[in-house]
Amino acid sequence: xxxxxxxxxxxxxxxxxxxxxxxRDLIARGAxxxxxxxxxxxxxxxxxxxxxxxxxxxxxxxxxxxxxxxPPVMGGGYGGxxxxxxxxxxxxxxxxxxxxxxxLVIPAPWAATWFNRWLVSRVRVPGRPNLGFTGNVGGIWYVxxxxxxxxxxEQISVYAQLVGIVVQAFLGWMVxxxxxxxxxxxxxxxxxxxxxxxxxxxxxxVLMMLSFITIIGWAWVATAWTRWICRNISxxxxxxxFNASGLDVLWRTLVFAIACVFIIPIPWMLRWYxxxxxxxFALVQRxxxxxx
Length: 292
Description:
This protein is of the alpha+beta class. It contains nine helices and 14 strands. The protein has helices at residues 20-28, 88-103, 108-121, 141-153, 158-180, 198-211, 218-231, 246-260, 266-279, and strands at residues 5-10, 13-19, 37-40, 47-48, 80-81, 83-84, 123-124, 131-133, 183-185, 188-189, 193-194, 233-234, 238-242, 281-285. It has a four-stranded antiparallel beta sheet. The chain has a three-stranded antiparallel beta sheet with strand order 5-14-13. Strands 8-9-10 form a three-stranded antiparallel beta sheet. Strand 3 (37-40) and strand 4 (47-48) form a beta hairpin. Helix 2 (88-103) packs across helix 9 (266-279). The protein is globular, with a radius of gyration of 21 Å. Mean pLDDT is 86; it is low at 59-70 and 73-78.
């Protein structure tokens, strides 16, 4: 048995070293999956475990790679997984204020700005310490007011609901552009932007609505939509990827929805779902997963 050591990334942190017997056990228990970033001696950078020939089946002996060196620093030039520190009651409180603020329309811009500023500050991005959000209420206040008004306008008729889908998509597109362009690290603005086409975004929104007819197809559409959004985020040397599969999104969303029916579990389930969702994002060198 080879004495080769392996490292893997979990929640933005480097785990290891592990000998092959230990790594085999981690794979068997599901701690290391096909989409987990791993590294071993001789590899130029971190790679998905499923992309390394023979790794998931762990045959005897190491893959044919040169030896030597130390693992690249997670969060350095290569990348790593995103994570979020979301205290249960703080997440619940901020979420309630956001929902109520949008429903009351007038306070919507303040509630949305306050919520996004808090949420971004809780996100941990490799290589971007003290992530922050610099957006202010005056930025796109009318967008959040419009989102609040849509809740009531869509109750008028079926036609209003259909028009509302398109309008809501356009407003959502504006919100993503606003948030992406207002990110900072250590108090310094980041050159990040979202360049997705507005008509493509609206198309995804419509497809998402239509996919509910299939009962479960929406989960795969949501996953593909999220990956499209990630591909259209630019401005840095790293690209954002989304690792979750449609099946991952489906069963976790169903568990979350069913648990919330019982009311009491809502705070913990909200944190569980939000933390998992954030952990599915990662930063990698541009072009590394061009076909992902």
